[in-house]
Amino acid sequence: MATMATCAISISTLPRNPQRVPSRISVRTKQSQRRFLLNTGNLEVCNGEGSVEKWKVGVSFFPSFLKKKGKSSEEIKAELLQAIEPLDRGAEATPEDKERIDQIASELEAVNTIKEPLKSDLLNGKWELIYTTSRSILATERPKFLRPNGKIYQAINADTLRAQNMETWPYFNQVTANLVPLSSARVAVRFDTFKILGFIPIKAPGRGKGELEITYLDEKIRVSRGDKGNLFILKMVDPTYRVPL
Fold it and tell me: For residue 188, what pLDDT is reported?
């Protein structure tokens, strides 16, 4: 077997800039023509007879521009919306679906740039619920014709820290709440008044409370997680809407 001493080129003569290293070098040695193939961490020498000699190289010859880049927030949102679309807000989601949605939502949360959402004007307005794992909201224990079949909205006033949940067809129920900041992204939710069929007011019971953390926010999409482990994904429909005082 030939050694590096018999070749007209050695590792030390290769260019120092990995991006400028060619993927194939042909040189003439004393015995035969050999072809040098540069792989990540390896130098392969192919002689004329077809056999291959390999050396470990302590440097990567993979150009930096070939390294895979992470997905953008727009790409992740498109993937999330496509996965959500056939699931009827989550009512038709299988355990596998829920796991996939949670994974994509986590990817989106990882690229969140709004670190203090409670101070952001992007929070203001009416949001439509497009996916949740909350069985109480989806009413999955009921027959399908008795579930809230119309759109479900949540509105927030960031300045007054007021929130309003609104069902549409067929019940038109509503509830308003005060939001008590626990951090720059997490609030305690204190429900105060329910409106049955949209106009019969009932004072909320003392147990009507919970916590909510806003984990992703932009002008189109909001992701939140509740204290009971539920995931909520909403899309903006009216940034001018204000919760009634």
Answer: 98
CB 138 within 8 A of CB 156: no
pLDDT tens-digit readout, 172-225: 999 999 999 999 999 999 999 989 888 888 998 877 789 999 999 999 999 999
Q: Report the run of H or E that residue 196 belongs to, with start and end.
A: strand 186-196
| CA distances for 182 relative to 70, 103, 140, angstroms | 32, 26, 31
Do 107 and 147 meet the contact criterion of CB atoms below 8 Å apart?
A: no
Chain mean position to CA 114:
14
The answer to whether the predicted template modeling score (pTM) of the entire model surpasses 0.85 is no
Per-residue pLDDT at 59 exceeds 50 = no
Rounded Cα distance, 152 and 174, in Å: 10
Residue 133 CB neighbour total at 10 angstroms: 19
Contacts of 51 (CB under 8 A, 6+ apart): none
